[in-house]
Write a structure and sequence with these properties.
Blueprint (H helix, E strand, L loop, with lengths): L2 H12 L4 H11 L1 E2 L4 E2 L4 H9 L3 H11 L4 H8 L3 H15 L4 H8 L9
Antiparallel strand pairs: 1-2
Amino acid sequence: MGLMDKIKKMLLKSKFETAELYEKETTIFGSQTSYGKKLNLSPDEKSKLVKNLTPREKETFFILLGGYSLKEAAKQLGIGYSTANTYQTAIYKKLHVNSRAELIINFRDVSETGDG
């Protein structure tokens, strides 16, 4: 483990009250890639997270997963950009991602039929 990794770990660890919470968080949320974090979730766990999205969030999720912009997603759904942005924010929160890149990295293998 390099110096930067040790510093990152120390800073991350200081956010948590107990070592147990830190270990749980790093186990679930996994490693960092150059594009964002890679979640340590099985296909079943990913499908469960996606199933927790509202129907409209799911529609938005699959459009975004297909590589479309938020503006294009709004157009396809027949909604305003700000509404699409609200859905995107909810999706990111529920799926524990912070960007479109993280969404695609972690959920590209999830199908609309829900079979991972």
